[in-house]
Amino acid sequence: MRTIIRNGRIVTAVDDYNADILIEDETVAVIGRSLDMEADKVIDAKGRLVIPGGIDPHTHMDLPFGGTSSSDNFETGTIAAAHGGTTTIIDFAVQYKGQALNEALDEWFRKSEGRTSIDYGFHLICTDLPDERLPEIKTLIDQGVTSFKLFMAYPGVFLVDDGVIYKAMTTASEKGGLICMHAENGVVIDAIVKRALAEGKTSPKYHALTRPTKAEAEGVHRAIAIADMANAPVYIVHLSCDDALQEVTRARDAGIPVYAETCPQYLFLDDTVYEKPGFEGAKYVMTPPIRGKHNQEKLWRGLQFNDLQVVATDHCPFCFKEQKELGKDDFTKIPNGGPGVEHRMSLVYNGGVATGKISLNRFVEIVSTNPARIFGLFPRKGTIAVGSDADIVIFDPDEEMTISAKTHHMNVDYSCYEGVRVRGVTKTVLSRGKVVIEEGKYAGKPGNGKFLKRGLFNSPR
Length: 461
Ligand code: URP
Ligand code: ZN
Ligand code: ZN
Fold this sequence. Notes:
Layout: E1 2-11, E2 16-24, E3 27-32, E4 41-44, E5 49-52, E6 54-59, E7 64-65, E8 68-69, H1 74-83, E9 86-94, H2 101-112, E10 119-125, H3 134-142, E11 147-151, H4 162-174, E12 178-182, H5 186-198, H6 205-209, H7 213-229, E13 234-236, H8 242-253, E14 258-262, H9 264-268, H10 294-304, E15 310-311, H11 344-353, H12 360-374, E16 392-402, E17 421-431, E18 434-438, E19 441-442
Helix pairs in contact: 3-4, 4-7, 7-8
The structure holds N-(aminocarbonyl)-beta-alanine and zinc ion (ZN) (2 copies).
């Protein structure tokens, strides 16, 4: 099968030029001006950007959490991702207490097998790492699961202690793997939460008020200090605030290999969402919580000056009806997480490129190229180059759309961005040469996505 994309403006993290692309089967075969070649399918990209498929390295499809499961499974979630121009997700498998690491992974293979419309990889959340299990980290790295998430939060559920973090970092980095850190001081947070509940503070806003930015900053500081002692790189997930960013900036200035992602909810929402009437605030109960508005410009600065390298979504949707409502009388029972996988590219384009905060190249870098580099997928993914997978998004930089739960494809009954108008719309998406979205309509097939055996961690720059 040969496909030609004609007349587009190709933008990668470093390039910006007009050319045609010939795709042969799954990969980019030729890039050139006015290609004089035959093809089975021709796509006209005139007036549009042709960019590498988005890579969202932080999703939770079908995740059991808070007494329920996230409402997107691998089928609905990857269709929604594709609609928004994301062609690869890296989801989080979970090891529960007493499980071998490969046993945990097998469960996520069962959930995802034959269901995804785009390619996918796994990180593994480790919750139980006695010394005798540490070698299993190395086995998984050989199998293409090259990153692991550890929690400093949720004592009794996900939290692992600092000694375990140190040993996991040492072990993973010896093999070229990477530890991703949920950095919040969960022990202190738990004490604050208990006090709030005892005082009868049970509504959704107390989720935010019991998770101070200092708890996140302390977690980030400690994660970096432990990584430094372990002589290992560390990747901070879902960084939400200036206090935490300052820790990352300080460490990077000192030459410590720390990398961090933020998410659209921290760039575009502020803590006034918790003042919405009734139980509405539950829609924004996610961890870390949505922060005060002043943090947003600091996060953008972090993206501009490369202290933050990635925008991921932490897509972990729960329906407002029946799922978020589990916490109607007690905010600690609201399942933590929110939807986002579908709108990351448009939100970041609209809020970043259209406003002049970041360049087009930087946009591609933070939504695609850097996740590919950091998580061992580059240059197969994350760029448009001869030999790369033909994961390509044809993006209209001028078209506008209004985000709404009425029109989105995520399996969730609300949007955090209901009614928000954005400029920059994904029109057509190819995943390894196959059209998954054609002029905004799903044209893929669940099961066409492949599991990605990822390579080792690579420093983005
Ligand atoms: O609230 C969140 N973020 N839910 C997903 C789990 C996590 O910590 O990433
Ligand atoms: Zn987390
Ligand atoms: Zn998450």
